[in-house]
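B., you asked whether I could sanity-check this one before it goes into the benchmark set. Here's the sequence:
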Amino acid sequence: MRLEEPAADKIQIVFTQRRERVRHSEIMGARVGGVTSSAPADLGRRRGEYGIDAPYVPLSMGVGSVVAFAVFFSGSALSIPALAAIAPNLGLALAASVADYLYASRYGKFAVWRDLLLSLGLRGDEHVLDMGCGRGAVLLMAARLLPRGRAMGIDLWKTSDQSGNALEVTRRNAELEGVADRVDQRTGDMRALPFKDESFDVVLSSLAIHNIGDAAGRAKAIDEAVRVLRHGGRVLIADINATREYEARLRERGMVDVERGSLGPRMWFGGPWVAASLVRARKPSI
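And here's what the prediction gave me:
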């Protein structure tokens, strides 16, 4: 039995319909702030420039590595076995720490926060606050998941905390990421947030609260995060120091589902001895 071959015009219609469906998907994706915000791979793609966290740290380690190798060559030339034996190992260790630090700052933290933000299961209409937003690494990633919401970033814009840290740089990054229409930035101290009570559905902070030098100040920042959070809202804090303090303070403030855990090698800033941890919690519903 011979099968009838489809007419050429019918084949053309099928391919035309397929092209139209693909084109429709592209258009719908472009309408959400220029990105398809729900796709994990796309969420990890960056168009802005986000600098390096605490740039003096890798610079100091790099200088130490160079000095160690200089000592090695000097020790070899002067026939000093102790220097020749110890210095290269120290130089290699510091060089490895620099590489690890730069990876965490430039790549690792973005991958970690992509996973964390997607785990929130946002509807897209929430109001999100990023405390210590810097150049917008986490703030703008969150904004891409908020086509009908708002993302607010607050910072003191210190370049010691992040290279090139400035409000205008964050605004430019928001434009490059296609989310400027849903992002706001404020200059302010996280210990005295300029927002009303219960203003946000989610409060985030990445590698920022530890920059407050005293425990009382860090506790105040946690209190402020709880104050501006709506009932049922969630807090996510990633930091390298004082995370046990944050955990304890959140419990004291009546938060529930409080958890603390390691964020793994992707956020090792120089090695496992400078590893970031995550503290997360939820404000009880009324």
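One thing to flag: Residues 81-119 form the longest helix (39 residues). Otherwise nothing jumped out at me.
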